[in-house]
Amino acid sequence: MCRNITTLRGLQPGATAEEIEAAARQYVRKVSGVQKTSAATEAAFESAVSAIAATTAELLDALPPRQQPPPTLPPLRRINAKKAAVSTGTSVR
User: Which entry of 40, 41, 79, 85 is 20 to 30 Å from 48 by CA?
Assistant: First the structure.
């Protein structure tokens, strides 16, 4: 349904609260059709993001470890890796 949400289970180190919230926010955007909140949608949108992030964190904690890491890194890790590469002068794909 939402191709932009990456697998968080099995990351090393584990998924951060920021990564979980970003995935929840992407999910809520997709199912609600709300890309930018307004005064009329903000409370419901943020409530849904909080609830889904909390449920996602519980799910990740309850699942057994993966045997292999996920095939792609979450967007926040890719962005942070690029920033680190720029500051050190190395290249990242």
Answer: 79
Contact 74, 22 (CB under 8 A): yes
> Residues 61, 93: contact at Cβ < 8 Å?
no
Q: 40-85: per-residue pLDDT in tens?
A: 999 999 999 999 999 999 999 999 988 888 877 777 787 777 888 7
- CB atoms under 10 Å from CB of 14, counted, come to 14
Q: Is residue 64 part of a domain?
A: yes
The H or E element spanning position 75 is helix 75-88
Domain hosting 53: range is: 17-88
Q: Does residue 10 lie within any of the structural domains?
A: no
- Would 74 be classed as within a structural domain? yes
Domains in the chain, number? 1
The CA distances from residue 61 to 19, 21, 81, in Å, are: 14, 15, 25
Q: Are 74 and 6 in contact (CB under 8 A)?
A: yes
Closest CA to 4 of 45, 46, 35: 35
